Amino acid sequence: MNYFASLPTSLILAADETTAFRSIEYDTPASGWGWLLLLGGLGLVLVLSFRTVWKDSVELSLFWRCWLAVLRLGVIIALIAIVFNPHERTQKMSFRPSRVAVLVDTSLSMRHPNQLVAANASSPASRNVVSRMEAVEKLLADSPLIKDLQKNHQVSIYSFDKTLVGPLHVFQKQDSSEETSKSASEKQSSGTEQPDWNTLLQPQGLETRLGELLGQLIREINGSTLSGIIIATDGASNAGTDLLSANEAAKESKVRLIPLGVGSPVQPANIQISKIIAPTDVQFGDGFEITAIVQAVGLPGKNITIELLRKVPGESEPTVVDTRDVLLPTEDSLPLDIKFERTPAEEGEIGYIVRARGNQLASDANAMDNELAHSVNVFSRPTRVLVIAGGPMRDYRFARTMLY
């Protein structure tokens, strides 16, 4: 099975060179009419100057005539130099390497199997399915992805879950001339400089803020040399802003987004005790209700058992105090309320656990969310109420009758 989509090869290319050169520039007319007026005026000045010199020096000797003509010609040349304003210009052109960012999802969902395993699969090959994070690490370490990108780009590695982390590692752009001159031993030594992907990419985040943190990364590293962002994720965004805002930011910045999807395209079956609604403090002898919110995916119309377990201080293991047989709805992720009535018989801190059981859970992809705990503090202290009123009004008399 091919886990990853193919990457486009037409990413932006930029060299990492600096070039400086000098040139002499002149302030010349920008149009043909400007040149015509300039040359015509210059010719007229030359004619008038020589005519004036000839008439003024008609009684002088030939030497003085030539000397005065040279002086006037020098003044005219100086004026021409002022008009054209020759000046030296130094221009420096710097080319920065094209940049590519690799953004890797490090949330807990990346620990799940990369392929959907059947519930009745018993072969060693089916049990030893790599996780989604292991598939990403194998791609970065063993495939030529990073080396191919290094030919034209500087590659930076980032990770995200509930926060953006990075750059964790930066792969500099490789010069083609240097690459061809490397010996085999140098290539082997350069391979040892690869980062420890298992240490850098640990799936331990409790949230996946894909849209929010992708937009943050675009704002932080945006620039004319940013070619694109490669996103390795299972797509399970469960917090933060929507992906549409990050997509719009990428369009405005002209940044290419390239997703690398991991995990199965089929949503795995899962039973989840998503929430427990119950009081935290209860008066001794008063009854109360524990409501468990159950959500299921991929198990339409299946029968499961929801157990309520109680654990009091001094007990090593919780005991089952109530059960409910539940028929799961046909619609995925539809919340189902399971209610348990309880009346405490002792004081103190009592822990309640709601747990899902049944043969149908053999196909559950995540057993960690099959139970949820809640603590209730049972007390017997009297409730004291102070009622202050300006007179025997109806609300005061009602409260007095209810309380006393």
Characterise the protein shown here:
- The chain has about 400 residues and is α/β, with parallel strands linked by helices.
- It has 3 domains: about 70 residues, no CATH class; about 160 residues, von Willebrand factor, type A domain (Rossmann fold, 3-Layer(aba) Sandwich); about 110 residues, Immunoglobulin-like (Sandwich).
- The protein is built from 11 helices and 15 strands.
- A 5-stranded mixed beta sheet has the order 5-4-3-6-7, with helices on both faces. Strands 9-15-14-11-12 form a 5-stranded mixed beta sheet, with no helix packed on it. The chain has a 3-stranded antiparallel beta sheet with strand order 8-10-13, with no helix packed on it.
- The radius of gyration is 41 Å and the shape is elongated.
- The N terminus is likely disordered.
Name a few traits of the molecule.
Rossmann fold, 3 domains, five-stranded mixed beta sheet, single chain, 15 strands, 404 residues, alpha/beta, 30% helix, Immunoglobulin-like, disordered N terminus
Q: SSE order in H/E notation? A: EHHEEHHHEEHHHHEHEEEEEEEEEH
Question: What are the low-pLDDT stretches, counting only 5+ consecutive residues below 50?
Answer: 1-16, 119-126, 183-192
- Span of the ends, CA to CA: 74 Å
CATH topology (level 3) name of the largest domain:
Rossmann fold
> What is the CATH-assigned architecture of the largest domain?
3-Layer(aba) Sandwich
Give a summary of the structure in a few sentences:
30% of the residues lie in helices and 29% in strands. It is of the alpha/beta class. It folds into three domains: 20-92, no CATH class; 98-261, von Willebrand factor, type A domain (Rossmann fold); 270-379, Immunoglobulins (Immunoglobulin-like), CATH 2.60.40.
